[in-house]
Amino acid sequence: MTALAALIRRDIRIALRVGGGALIGVLFFLTVVVLMPFAVGPDLALLSRLGPAILWLGALLASLLTLDRLFMADHEDGSLDLITMSRTPLELACAAKALAHWLAAGLPLIVATPVLGLLLNLDMVATGAVALTLLAGTPALTFTGMIGAALAVTLHRGGLLMAVLVLPLSIPVLIFGVAASQAAITGPSSFGAPFSILCALSLVSLVIGPFAAAASLKHGLD
Amino acid sequence: MTLIDLANPTRFLALSARVLPWLAAATVILLTIGLYQSATAPDDYQQGATVKIMFIHVPNAWLSMFVWGVMSIASLGTLVWRHPLADVAAKAAAPIGAAFTFLALFTGSLWGRPMWGTYWEWDARLTSVLILFLMYLGLMALWRAVEDPSRAARAAAVLTLVGAINLPIIKFSVDWWNTLHQPASVMRMGGSTLDKSFLIPLLVMAVAFTLLFVTLHLAAMRNEILRRRVRSLQMMQASQKAA
Questions:
Q1: How far is B86 from chain A (nearest CA, A)?
Q2: Residues of B in contact with A144 (CB under 8 A)
Q3: Where are the bilayer-spanning segments (chain B) (predicted)?
């Protein structure tokens, strides 16, 4: 247990320090949201209608792009080999790394949501709903994206290929995240049903992600 | 003769060379019967002659999912049993599966034009087949992106299995998304409501297409084995030249 706690603490520290790049995700999120009015026009009514979808898409892309680094830096300096050889099960180590990554790169996205909601003319309820669904849904994005990150490090290929492979897997999260936020804002369908399915998706990916990532690391790194 | 005996590629090549002509002949015969029956099947009272598209469309759609199942079993073979031919099977199946999926989408949109008045509709079933097509293309891109076949095989196996778990979830969520956005406007075609004059040709076509897949898959696996042999011979030749 202490080994995992130490791993989480180490990863968060590295991510927050110079060269860690965790906060670049937030900057990217902000940039995507700022680009949207240029694409659809500065119509506040339209923006507030599209708001939840824009925020979800931005968060999806931001968390995907930061995931590239999840294993890459550790692979370059050799600490990934140490983690694979240690007595802690690799699945748990992967889960710990993903958790640390979510705390360092996913949570800031959610904290930034209210400010970005202001830019998109979302009211209090809508902003709260989007932030809440992001809080429930971004773990699923991190944990499924981790599979792509593990494949990227074993294949020495990142970027576009991994995005193409991982994005279709994140469609369910996007569907239920946007559905729950829309239900909270406009009704008439209930907020509870899509929101609990969103939580279920996060829990499922919490199980599948570490196993698949550990499997591809085990088979790929030798 | 068990599966492990086939682990020797030479034995597999010899056996498949003997089986392949029979399989091809059976495919041709069944396809001929199926096509004849489909062509002579009566017109639907609502859809007219366009219902004949169904005899091509439905087997394609069925195989688009069946091939992913075959690839998942092959991926288990790669990861769990390390069967040397499993990754050949998985790699050879992906383009065939993508082709069946594309044909299902294509015939579906040809059928949709006279029936729904549009080539494309963001209907739940169409959307999830389109996502399946994207996943096939992603897998093929992964196979092409990595030079070393065994390294690519393990990565592709992990991804195929994750996809196999995810496909039902995607299907379910797309269903949800669609009912949320628009009422179901698509005709439903349950198996039990299908008349016998349609059902029998459809089943014959389904079996014929499955045989077609098996034939193409075996041939593609043979090609892949030979391609790998050529590759290793070329590498040997290159290293001899260097020495």
A1: 15
A2: 162
A3: 12-36, 61-81, 93-112, 124-143, 155-178, 198-221
Q: A171 and B170 in contact by Cβ < 8 A?
A: yes
Residue B8 lies in a domain: no
Within a domain: residue B148? yes
What is the longest distance spanned by two Cα atoms in chain B? Answer: 75
Adjacent-strand bridge partners of B44 = B48
Q: Is B125 on the interface with A (CB under 8 A)?
A: no
Q: What is the pTM of this model?
A: 0.86
**Tens digit of each residue's pLDDT (9 = 90 or more) over A76-109:** 888 888 888 888 888 888 999 999 989 888 888 9
Q: How confident is the model at residue B180 (pLDDT cuts 50, 70, 90)?
A: low
Are A157 and B145 in contact (CB < 8 Å)? yes
Interface contact A171-B145, CB threshold 8 A: no
For tokens 């991926």, what's the residue? B75
Q: Is residue B134 part of a domain?
A: yes
B80 Cβ under 8 Å from any chain A Cβ: no
Q: Which domain holds residue B82?
A: 24-185+207-235
Per the structure, the count of domains in chain A is 1
**Residues spanned by the domain of A95:** 2-220
| B136 assigned to some structural domain | yes
ipTM comes to 0.83
pLDDT digits (tens, 9 = 90+) for B112-166: 777 777 777 777 778 888 888 999 999 998 888 887 888 888 888 888 998 888 8
Please indicate if any CB of chain A lies within 8 Å of the CB of B82. no
pLDDT tens-digit series, residues B1-20: 566 666 778 888 888 888 88
Residues forming beta bridges with residue B215, ordered by sequence position: none
Q: How many domains does chain B have?
A: 1
